[in-house]
């Protein structure tokens, strides 16, 4: 567990049917297409994973490197912990938050919606390395559609919940 970056590594007794492929180089193009794969709450959490597309807004610097990224996408509860993918299906981060629209409105008078955040690739890779987890890095491939991204990610994601 890394409390500072809100990351956790879970171990399961079953072997996943697939593994995530991580982007070899940091994605820093503002406006680049991105996608989240997860189980976003839409009244009830879905039983099947869903793809949510968006765009990269900017890396957020914590003083050392791009530790977090901001995305324009409809991030919801249930996306947290899921992969943030580029348009080639390679992991560029882990989704971990969305803007609190109501709180921002109360403090600024502005409506800001569809703003999500993720932990950036270098932090995720460092976390996995510190926990002796091997990763597969890949060079750029061909662009994929939303359904293709979902098909690619489905084997290495799982719905996790806490009912306490």
List the helices and strands and how they pair.
Layout: E1 21-23, E2 33-38, E3 50-61, E4 66-72, E5 83-86, E6 91-98, H1 101-108, E7 115-120, H2 121-130, E8 136-138, H3 146-153
Parallel strand pairs: 1-8
Antiparallel strand pairs: 2-3, 2-5, 3-4, 4-7, 5-6, 6-7
Q: How would you characterize this protein structure?
A:
By secondary structure, the chain is of the alpha+beta class. Helix content is 16%, strand content 30%. The chain is built from three helices and eight strands. The longest helix has 10 residues. It starts with 20 loop residues before the first strand and ends in an 11-residue tail after the last helix.
The radius of gyration is 15 Å
Q: For the residues shown, what is the average pLDDT?
A: 86
Largest sheet: 6 strands, antiparallel, barrel
Q: Largest sheet, order of strands side by side?
A: 2-3-4-7-6-5
Q: Supply the number of helical segments.
A: 3
Indicate the overall shape: globular
SSE order, one letter for each helix or strand: EEEEEEHEHEH
Report the count of strand segments.
Answer: 8
Summing up helix and strand content along with how strands pair, one would put the structural category as alpha+beta
Provide the helix percentage: 10-25%
**Low-pLDDT windows of residues:** none
What is the percentage of strand-forming residues?
25-35%
End-to-end distance: 19 Å
What's this model, at a glance?
The chain has 3 helices and 8 strands, in the order E-E-E-E-E-E-H-E-H-E-H.
